[in-house]
Amino acid sequence: MSEAPLFEIKGLHASTVEGGDEILKGVDLTVGIGEVHALMGPNGSGKSTLASVLLGSPEYEVTAGSIHFRGEDVTDWPADVRGKAGIFLAFQYPQEIPGVSVLNFLRQSLSARKGIDLSVLELRLAIMEWMERLEMDASFADRYLNEGFSGGEKKRNEILQMAILEPEMAILDETDSGLDIDALRVVSRGVQEVRRDRPELGVLAITHYQRLLDELQPDQVHVIIDGRIVESGDAELAKQLEREGYERFGVTA
């Protein structure tokens, strides 16, 4: 009997809870253990909606299809249960949480994820090691979560969370959005550092740009148009999209 894929989306349809508009119209996608997949598409194609649905956002309702994680149907699991199970989402726009330090946020999150009640000192040592690897200033640990952070600092903080929480499946929702070239390289190298420590980690990187994929070197690239994946291929597909855009899929600028 073959082992189940790490992450499998089957015929996924989803609508907004309030308006009822269908955004995802039958998404199929499978990520194996240790694989990196990229999802690309024009604005309004359903990329960020898919990321939200995969983590169980209450703003969306799955109307058909399923989401499986390590062979288990997690379609109806709430977001916190998915997170504890090992599914991680790096947000396109990370939220500021005044009054909660990065250190305390990670301590609470790690306790929920693994049931480990690390001392502040133990966690601080782990965080400092990763901050050095992610080229983050050590003072970040005591700053309030994302408050006053630059765009690059917020994204690096997301990668820090991914490193400390050790998920099995990471969904990166436009992690490259708003980053300059140098910050993008730091974030991309951070993702690769985490994968070096945890080669079994599966990654779904949602992006507009080829430049992130130059760093991550995905195993597969998928194109989503109007809520459906219309083409999949290797890294060359991303380069072709960079050159030609989405016109052949009926999308005009």
For the secondary structure, the number of strands is 12
Distance between the termini: 47 Å
Main sheet?
Answer: 6 strands, mixed
User: On the 0-100 scale, what is the average pLDDT?
Assistant: 86
Q: What pattern of helices and strands is seen along the backbone? A: EEEHEEHEEHHEHEHEHEEH
Unreliable stretches covering 5 or more consecutive residues: none
What does this structure look like?
This protein has 253 residues and is of the alpha/beta class. It has one domain: 3-Layer(aba) Sandwich (Rossmann fold). 36% of the residues lie in helices and 28% in strands. It is built from 8 helices and 12 strands. The strands form 3 sheets. It has a 6-stranded mixed sheet with strand order 6-9-10-3-11-12, sandwiched between helices. A 4-stranded antiparallel sheet has the order 2-1-4-5. The protein has a two-stranded antiparallel ribbon with strand order 7-8. Helix 6 (181-197) links the parallel strand 9 and strand 10 (202-206). The longest helix is centred in the C-terminal third of the chain and has 17 residues, at 181-197. The radius of gyration is 18 Å and the shape is globular. The model has no long low-confidence stretch (mean pLDDT 86).
Kindly summarize this structure in a few lines.
The chain is an alpha/beta fold and 253 residues long. 36% of the residues lie in helices and 28% in strands.
